[in-house]
Structures are given as structure tokens and as C-alpha cells.
Amino acid sequence: MYRWLILIVAAFLLYKLFMGDRGRKKDKEAETQKHKAATGEMVKDPVCGTFVPAEADIRARDGNKVYAFCSYECRDTFVKRLEASRTQSMEQGKPAEDRTEENGRSQ
Same domain for 74 and 90? Predict the structure, then answer.
């Protein structure tokens, strides 16, 4: 009887030790990600909001700005939105930026 009680208590203590360690690892990992985001090592995916490394392999450029993405699906969604906004602005007329560039060249 006592053997089973000791075995159950030992198993419970091992379980609590293991779960406590996992909790500390999760907390430490979350803190590390917050630090990386604050220092600029990690950036936010503009589509889904996931934090990814600033030098991620999946990127898209819009003018001088480079965006990093967590997946090709997010990148494709962003590119489609970007193209749609450009098409819409072209239908309404040239954007103010383009008009000022043309005025600067003609003078």
C-alpha cells in the first residue's frame, strides 16, 4: 500500500517538475520574441500580424520599403492588395507623388 502511495507521489512530483519547466520555457521564449521585436530583429507580417525575422526568406518590396512574411500565402495576399490599390489609383488619376516627380523633371 505504501509503495503505491510513494510511487504516485513521485510520479506527481515528476509531472509538476516537467510541466513547470515547460511553462518557464514558454515564458522565456515569449520574452525573447518581445525583445527581438523591440530591437528590430523581428518584424510584424503586414497581413496576419505574426512576428517573423526581419531577414526572412519570404519578402516583397514596395518602393523603398521591404516587407517580410510568414508564408507565401500572406505574401501573395499582400501583393494582390498592393496591385489592387495601384490599379484603383491609376483609374482615379496619377497619384500626387507621380505628378510631383513629372513636374520636377520638366523644369
Answer: yes
